[in-house]
Automatic annotation (TrEMBL):
GO terms for biological process: amino acid transport. Belongs to the leucine-binding protein family. Pfam families: Peripla_BP_6 (PF13458). Gene3D superfamilies: 3.40.50.2300. This is Branched-chain amino acid transport system substrate-binding protein.
Length: 391
């Protein structure tokens, strides 16, 4: 019986060539080699499931496609995955299991900054490459020898937002931030970089992940003299509540969100209140709207069409793109090293130059285990329930 997943793979099969996943069939001797074991821990359930669910689906889909195309260096890929529910303690437990019992060759995952930070000491001690899908700059700054990440950082998001504000003549800004790992981290980064852009933070409010109403905090901001725009660092349902409350109390200044809400789910949750909201995000959200000459266009259009052929129209998010980039960076590093040896792959990852992914063009070094700059971010605005490229 043909499942929806299998049917989707057939519909999207044409993308194999475009994604560089074709390879000769392995010889009988190669086929008998042990598989390359890819470990993963993701928040597939719980409050961050909107991150982990598309990440896991992406890994499963592309690992199957790579195996169909002959594997990696003639070896099959095997995914070993655990669901953390965004719990840092579970992440530590699962990472230890991946490293000690499952004996994985690499770890791809960590949907959130909190779960990622919890396992870094383990992967550093085990000396196994770890590519995180989380946003916090603390993951790779300072640089840790065995740790890499794919999404733009929260510090970069602050910079991109403030850069856009400069162009609009905005200089007095209020923050309303979630107190979870990502929101707390981005708040700190925005406070730190604001002076570099001539931005003065004139109000600074927070909310807990369990809060269901932020009218009190927003009212304080509304009553603060001189506020010209509001920035909301956070992810999950909190930013959607902020956006609704923002409209409810009639605030008339621009509202900026972070790349932590870069999926259609945010627009669905916030409804009409999302109109006019701006945020920095990856090019994936506006894949078909990119100009023909944009070097990212073939990659993001290819990933979007492949993912949506399997999982449904409109289902793609930048979060699944983080997983795609992580897997393809690992694939390129193994091929460059000619081996899945962890040390050789670590060195090859660090030597990545000009890799085009859904997040942008990646060029890493011993001092940079992300490899993206502000030009990799696109500034988007929500209009009529969809994303519009601002610049």
């Amino acid at each position: 019986m043909m499942t929806r997943f299998t049917k989707g793979l057939m519909l999207a099969g044409v993308a194999l060539v475009a994604l560089g996943l074709t390879a000769p069939a392995p010889s009988p001797a190669q086929a008998q080699e042990d598989p390359i074991r890819i470990g993963s821990f993701l928040a597939v359930t719980g409050p961050a499931s909107f991150l982990g669910d598309p990440e896991l689906k992406t890994l499963e889909m592309y690992i199957e496609r790579i195996n169909q195309a002959g594997g990696l260096l003639g070896r099959e890929l095997e995914l070993v995955h655990y669901d953390t529910g965004a719990d840092a303690n579970k992440a530590r437990t699962f990472a230890k299991r991946l490293l000690e019992s499952d004996e994985v060759d690499v770890i791809l995952g960590g949907s959130t900054t909190g779960t990622t930070m919890a396992v870094i000491p383990l992967v550093e001690r085990a000396e196994v490459p770890f590519i995180s899908f989380a946003g916090g700059v603390s993951i790779i700054d300072p640089v840790k020898p065995w740790v890499f990440k794919t999404p733009h950082t929260d510090r970069m998001a602050c910079g991109k937002i403030f850069e856009d504000m400069q162009g609009r003549g905005i200089s007095k800004v209020a923050l309303i931030s979630g107190t979870g790992g990502f929101g707390k981290s981005m708040r700190g980064q925005c406070l730190e970089v604001a002076p570099d852009y001539g931005i003065e933070i004139v109000a600074d409010e927070t909310y807990a992940p369990s809060d269901t109403d932020m009218v009190a905090q927003l009212t304080k901001i509304k009553n603060t003299e001189g506020v010209e725009a509001v920035v909301n660092p956070g992810f999950g349902q909190g930013p959607a509540i902020v956006t609704k409350n923002f409209a409810q109390i009639g605030m008339a200044v621009p509202l900026y969100q972070s790349h932590g809400v870069a999926s259609k789910k945010f627009i669905e949750l916030a409804g009409d209140a999302a109109e006019g909201v701006r945020l920095p995000a990856a090019a994936l959200l506006v894949a078909e709207k990119l100009p023909d000459g944009d070097p990212q266009r073939p990659i993001v259009v290819g990933y979007k069409s492949t993912y949506e052929a399997v999982h449904g129209e409109g289902s793609v998010s930048t979060f699944g793109g983080h997983a795609y980039d992580g897997l393809m960076l690992y694939k390129a590093a193994v091929e460059a090293a000619g081996s899945a040896d962890p040390a050789a792959v670590r060195d090859a990852l660090e030597a990545t130059r000009g890799f085009i992914g859904t997040a942008g063009e990646v060029t890493m070094s011993a001092d940079d285990h992300l490899g993206l700059d502000l030009t990799a971010f696109r500034m988007l605005e929500i209009r009529d329930g969809d994303w519009v490229l601002v610049n």
